[in-house]
């Protein structure tokens, strides 16, 4: 039977490595996580596009007012997305 040899890093090296890894990980997660205002804007766009789609599939009744509501919701969501992403 062979003996297993375990190697350990010193406490100083381990803590410095852990701090560097945690800060890099936190920066990466904060970089890829979308802001809540952008998520709400995309939700408005999808809601505005789903209303005409549901009217096309005849799941909801086709009315002119509902068509304008879908257009307005999609337009507001698109403008808010442009503003929040920094394009305007």
Report what the structure shows:
With 88 residues, this protein is mainly α. It has one domain (11-85). Helix content is 74%, strand content 0%. The chain has helices at 11-32, 36-56, 64-85. Helix 2 (36-56) runs antiparallel to helix 3 (64-85). It is elongated and about 80 Å long.
Q: Return Rg in Å.
A: 26 Å
| Helix/strand/pairing category | mainly alpha
Count of extended strands:
0
- What is the terminal-to-terminal distance? 70 Å
Mean pLDDT: 84
Give the secondary structure arrangement, pairings included:
Layout (H helix, E strand, L loop, with lengths): L10 H22 L3 H21 L7 H22 L3
Helix pairs in contact: 2-3
Could you list some keywords that capture this structure?
single chain; 88 residues; 3 helices; elongated
Summarize the structure.
This protein is mostly helical and 88 residues long. 74% of the residues lie in helices and 0% in strands.
